[in-house]
Structures are given as structure tokens and as C-alpha cells.
Amino acid sequence: MQTSPSPAENAPTAEPGRWRKLAVDGLWKQNPGLVQLLGLCPVLAVSSTAVNGMALGLATTLVTALSGAAVAAVRHYIPNEIRNPVFILIIAALVTCVDLTMNAYLHALYGVLGIFIPLITTNCIVLARAEAFASKNPAREAAFDGLTMGLGLTLVLAALGALRELFGRGTLFSGAELLFGEPGRALTLHLVPAEANYQFLLALLPPGAFIGLACLIAAKNALDARTKRRAAARPTQAEPAAAPATEGAR
């Protein structure tokens, strides 16, 4: 017999700072592309341009958010022994919907992304959030966690794609019309004149993806280290200001 959720699970969990913590974790502290290093296959393979990376990231975000909400909604009714197969079935159904929708309405972009849309089903990020978070939390929080984790991956894909496109082709947002329609052509920036036929193959090939991702990880670690140093220095700077007040009290 299926047990009903405990009162604690039905109680609201949106205490102050809860949503902010989920957002900061997904976008920065636990970013799946820079910290957890999950789903590296699409990160390295599709990020040849900013538009390609952004498109796959948004598709993954949609699946991660919806699967988190769906798993959280039925978590009390799934036997523990078949938990993971059920999670994969839910994710596969959502990925199929996204795959068919993109094939129908964004066919040119769908042809560029190819097999990586169906492969969202096996993306470690989606299944990891379903297992680690959605299966233990309410639907609203699970959906928001999936949304922020997906957006964190999208930012990494877009940044890495922009970096590789800039150094590899001298352009930014090339192929934007695939995602935004014909008006997207106006978004393409040619930082190197088109007639120059500029191309730097190292940035466009897989080694460039590894180098670019390493640079992004290094930049994040440097920013985190700088923030920690500033936080550690604040109490030291405040001590001299407190000393005269102590002497006056004596």
C-alpha cells in the first residue's frame, strides 16, 4: 500500500533564501558545465558556434525543468526498485516531444544539431537532477532547480560557442536565422571582413573545445578565489576601526 507523504513534505519549503540558493547553485556554484562537468559530450561537440550551443542548451533546459517537475509529482508512487527506469522513461518521452517539435518548426536547426537532440535522454545532467533533487523535493522546487541547472549549462554552451566562433571564424552569432528566423540574420557580427576568408581550425575542431572549456573553468576558479580573498580580508580591515571605541570604553 502506498504511504501518503508526511506533513513535513507537504509543508511549504520556500523559506527565505531557498530560491536564491537554487539559482546561485545552478548558474554558478554547481554549474553542470564548469563545476560538475556533466554532459561534456554535447558541450564539446555542439559548441562550434554560439547559436548552436544556445539552441541545444535551451532544449536541454526545457527537458530538465519539465522532467524535474514530472518526477517530483509522481515520486511517492514509484517503487524504489524501478525508480531509475521510470525516470528515464519520463525523460525519453519529453525528449521525444522536443525532438518532434524542433523537427517540425526549426528543421534547419534540427539538421545542424542532429543526433544530439535525442541524446538529451542520456545526458547525465537530466538524470542526475531527477535522482538527486527532483525525487526528494516538491514539484515547484524541482522545476526551478532543473531550470537553473539547464540555464547554467546554456550559458556555458553559449560562451564556449562564442569563444570558438570568434577565434575560429571571426564572427559572432553566425546562423542566428536558424534559431530566430529570417530577422536573425541581422544579429550576425563579422568582426573579421567576410572577404578575408579567415579561419582558425584549431578553435573549430575538438581540441579547441577542450582548450576553450579549460579557459572558462580557469576563469571561474580565478573569480571564486578572488571572491574568497576579499571575503577573508573584510574582518581584518574592520578591526582597526573598532579599536578606538574599545579604548574609550575603558
UniProtKB/TrEMBL annotation:
Annotated segments matching region Disordered: 230-250
Protein's membrane topology: Multi-pass membrane protein
Localization annotation: Cell inner membrane; Endomembrane system
Pfam families found in the cross-reference section: Rnf-Nqr
Coiled coil, from the record: none
Keywords: Cell inner membrane, Cell membrane, Electron transport, Membrane, Translocase, Transmembrane, Transmembrane helix, Transport
Residue ranges of the TM segments: 54-74, 86-106, 112-130, 142-163, 198-219
Chief site of localization: membrane
EC number(s) on file: 7.-.-.-
Subunit structure: The complex is composed of six subunits: RnfA, RnfB, RnfC, RnfD, RnfE and RnfG.
Functional note: Part of a membrane-bound complex that couples electron transfer with translocation of ions across the membrane.
Family: Belongs to the NqrDE/RnfAE family.
Protein name as annotated: Ion-translocating oxidoreductase complex subunit E
Annotated source species: Crenobacter luteus
Gene: rnfE
